[in-house]
Amino acid sequence: MPSSISNSEPAKAGPPIGDSHGDPSGGLHSEITRQRTIPDQPWPRIALAVAIAVVIGVAAWEVTCRSWGYRPGLDDTNDLWVEARRTVKPDSTVIIGSSRALFGLDLNALEAGLGTRPVQLALVGSCPYPVLRHLADDATFHGTVICDIVPGLLVVPYMAPPYKNAEKAVKRLHTQSWSQWAGLHLSIPLELTFACLQQEDLNLAALLRHVPLPDRPKAQIGPALPPHFSTIDRDRRTWMRPEVLTDQTLCDRVKYGWPPLFTPPPKPSWIPEGPFGEFMGKLFNERFVDMAKAVSDLRTRGGKVVFVRMPSSGELRQLEERLTPRAAVWDRLLKDTGSPGIWFEDHPELTGFECPEWSHLSAADSVEFTKRLAPFLKQALAAR
Amino acid sequence: MLFNSLTFVVFFLVVYGAYRLLPGWGMRKNLLLASSYVFYAAWNPPFALLLLLSTVVDWWLAGRMGAETHAGRRKLWLIISLVTNLGLLSFFKYGDFLMENTKILLAAIGIDYHPPDLGILLPVGISFYTFHTLSYTIDVYRGQLKPEASLRDFALFVSFFPQLVAGPIIRAKDFLYQLQAPPVPVPGRFTWGLFLMTLGLFQKVVIADTLLAPAADTVFGHPFPLAALDAWTGALAFGMQVFFDFSGYTLTAIGADLCFGFYLLNNFHFPYGAVGFSDFWRRWHISLSSWLRDYLYVPLGGNRFGTLRTLFNLMLVMLIGGLWHGAAWTFVVWGALHGLLLIAERGVRSLTEGAAWASRTPAQLAAWLATIAGVTVTWVFFRSQDFGSAMKNVLSMAGFFGAQGDQILATRDLVAVGSVVVVVLILHRALRDSSIEAVVQRLPAWAVAAAWIVMSLSVLLTQGNGNAFIYFQF
């Protein structure tokens, strides 16, 4: 089907800059391709075949994902965080911190226990400081902050991914465009319909990571993130998937993924020991100064902050204590900020919860844990 | 609004559906104009007013120019247009850069000056639409184009959404005439447009974002010296990423335009098949290089006033081309390096002119590989945050740190980048005198369908998890 407007030559540019030999205009007249070539193909039949094949392909992929145990659910994106952040009122109670607060704090139980429904602003794998600073900088906010503390995440340097994760979410609040806002609202119905729309595990990049390739012996490769093992709702309440309790392989994949993630990377070989230690020590100390300043700024406006150490178990619990001892991080945080804190092991009511994969409470335990935690929160907040 | 977003898919379907349903050509153009402003405002609504300002000023000034016969006054209208457009571009794009460098210069002579933090946000696409409108006023001034009587048509030329924010940079004379009458129906045009959009999105979200960006980001984000393999892989990954990212955008734009019945020029022509740097610039970001040639290099005298003047013009144009990409000295150095490479190429060509061996296959292959190597080294300056990082990476590529250099790339990244590089080099070399259209024309229908299915499913599999287009920041 030769098109009547066909121009089988590719669109050619004029002579390149500096190569306009014999052309005094330097090729001023751009060679206008007034029409483009339409390749001679049976396009209607091709389009129909492609449409049918894509529908079949998507359906087959959806069936495959469901057979692997995936179910429709929301993606925990920064836009979802922004949506939650926009619901914060001046006197709201908000939860900040990491995935332990997302998994372990039940919003209904907290609402029942505290008399107010908190807004869930915790972020997976994040340092709480950037969000605390952001709330302290919000002159309208004078509410209550329940701040989940994972000691290793609190003291990460500002250039580390956990810090950047939180910064990105805060930045999204200020930079979110109409199209990004619309994208969130258009994607939600799709995510609640299709199981294959799981960004963490089932997008192309994640699938390619499963290709088994041995790495170079000296390669400095960061640890892998855990597989998808949770679901999240519109309020950002997050539940551990029940499969983690029944599928030991999945449970182990998550469990043994934590120690490498919690272990700091080795010192760069290009920086001498002394200056590196000094630099990291300075950053460590600055984090406490910054936290204290943020808490003080909030308090000045009538806000309250209470810190919570959520449960962890097994070897991870021991590793955390070894890398970030309670006295060096938790005790110092409470002392420097003058804020109340609830360490789960200090209260018999809060102990005895076993995290199936060492780091997070199961869905059922999270409700019970929160019910027991609420009175302590109330007490801590009333005391200040 | 990103092409690689669900929002754009819905936007495109709604606009296209309404475009087909509306009865009159005028109403259709009104729809496209309104949609284009919605598309642009979806990033930052106030900046749509800036776009409107630039459009109205140039339309009005060109109208005055067209009605004026006095040469001096025509020039005055042109100068007002240049000052307005370049003034806006300078303020928004280079304001902070100028302030910061003024501070450094004054500090060098002992003056402690602290410029105010202007906190200027860069309006997306300003470099592109400024060049769209400038080409119009300059062409009208030169008498090569009549002023457009319809503000609506001119505004649509400036703002038509597919090419608004990242090109290709279109000329008024290439587009305005297409608005005079509704497009004549052409069998297969809409489907071919959809095919090109799919190919563009595949290039962007699958090849650039999924296969290449991880290696490039890892290497250019690493603050310490690298092993040569990692440094080269990172530089090649970025060189390929920026091609697929930008080519993907423009192919999507060309495809979207075709769906509505409009035709745009190609912006890339298998650039990694180039033999020599002038050949590279004939194939890379063609709409920018031809714009700079026609509105800067030729007015400066081009190659008409002797060798020294030609070299000076060449270097100046490449420096400005570098600065067009961003307000940072690393971009200026990138442009300067390309200027030096173009000058060196002229020297080599004059030395080898007439030599039979120079046109034989081994010499051509060597020249091709040297072109790729040279272009790849320049990308290091384009991508690096500062000179320290750039020099660290260049030294790493030269093997300066030997076995001490950090190995930071996973085997997966090495394989992904290596595979893409090999495929691209083979394809660009083989197709350097061909075109996508010619390739698709030669393929059997089942192969076209199969390629389209694979690309579509791959794009869907990325779940819209792509990044913004690199050229949006320019």
Q: Gist?
A:
Helices cover 48% and strands 7% of the residues of chain A. By secondary structure, chain A is α/β, with parallel strands linked by helices. In chain A, the strands form two sheets. In chain A, strands 2-1-3-6-7 form a five-stranded parallel sheet, sandwiched between helices.
Describe this structure in words.
The complex is a heterodimer of chains A (384) and B (474). Chain A has a domain at 87-179 and 262-383: 3-Layer(aba) Sandwich (Rossmann fold), CATH 3.40.50. Chain A is globular. In chain A, helix 5 runs parallel beside helix 7 and helix 5 runs parallel beside helix 14. Chain A contains 17 helices and seven strands. With 384 residues, chain A is α/β, with parallel strands linked by helices. The longest helix of chain A has 28 residues, at 273-300. Chain A has helices at 43-67, 78-85, 99-104, 107-114, 129-137, 151-154, 161-175, 178-191, 199-202, 204-208, 243-246, 248-255, 258-262, 273-300, 314-323, 327-337, 363-383, and strands spanning 93-96, 119-120, 144-148, 230-232, 238-240, 304-309, 341-343. Chain A has a five-stranded parallel beta sheet with strand order 2-1-3-6-7, sandwiched between helices. Chain A has a two-stranded antiparallel ribbon with strand order 4-5. In chain A, strand 4 (230-232) and strand 5 form a beta hairpin. By secondary structure, chain B is an all-alpha fold. Chain B has two domains: 6-179, no CATH class; 189-473, no CATH class. Chain B has 19 helices and no strands. In chain B, helix 9 (189-221) crosses helix 17 (411-430). The longest helix of chain B is centred in the first third of the chain and has 38 residues, at 71-108. Chain B is globular, with a radius of gyration of 23 Å. Classes of the chains: A alpha/beta (384), B mainly alpha (474). At the A-B interface, helix 1, helix 8 and helix 10 of A face helix 1, helix 9, helix 11, helix 12 and helix 13 of B.
